Amino acid sequence: MRGANLEQIIIDGQAGALQGVLHPSLGSGDFLIVCHPHPLFDGTMDNKVVTTVARTYLDLGVNVLRFNFRGVGRSAGQYGEISGEVQDCQSAVRWLLAHYDVQRLFLAGFSFGAYVAAKVAYELKQDHASLTLEHLLLVAPSVLNSPFELATPLACPTTVLMGGQDEVVPYQEVSDWCDGLYPPAEFIDFPEASHFFHGQLVRMKKEIKRSLAPHF
Fold this sequence. Notes:
By secondary structure, the protein is α/β, with parallel strands linked by helices. The chain has helices spanning 48-59, 83-99, 112-127, 171-179, 201-212, and strands at 7-13, 16-23, 30-35, 63-67, 104-110, 133-139, 158-163, 186-190. It has one domain: Alpha/Beta hydrolase fold, catalytic domain (Rossmann fold). The protein has an eight-stranded mixed sheet with strand order 1-2-4-3-5-6-7-8, with helices on both faces. Helix 1 (48-59) packs across helix 5 (201-212). The radius of gyration is 16 Å and the shape is globular.
């Protein structure tokens, strides 16, 4: 997201300093934290799905925080076997709450990051009842390789985006998982989309905005 208005930040993580960027939206008390794909498979906060999600929320007047998990980019540490990355996102939440008056918190994640976002939302609902968790966005959630049973029932209204041609996360597994959720989540199908939504990012922005419209 070069050229966009942003602030480089350092988050105090349990494994060391975490690299992050904050995209401010003037006068808004709405904040999004978005989690990137798997650190061991080139996932970073600059992934194009992550940045597309970030731009979409910025268009809606939401402040956006992106960050690199431990061991990625300029973030200290090494891969934390999912639980470490959950700690990293929790550190990002703490940083945000310490520096801003957060009126509504949105969480989002792509692939591996979708579980992290869902798990952090689940923990926040248990431990921070006064914090308004407004919405959770899960893009191609890796339901087979992540312990989603530890993150359900989902903590707030949720939207799931899934590509019908996903070559990394099995479409049917995600569809079946979503069908079994209670409270239910909105499932948005992209029949022609691969895992990285090549050629589908414009539609992604449109569908996210449509799904979020009741929240604004």
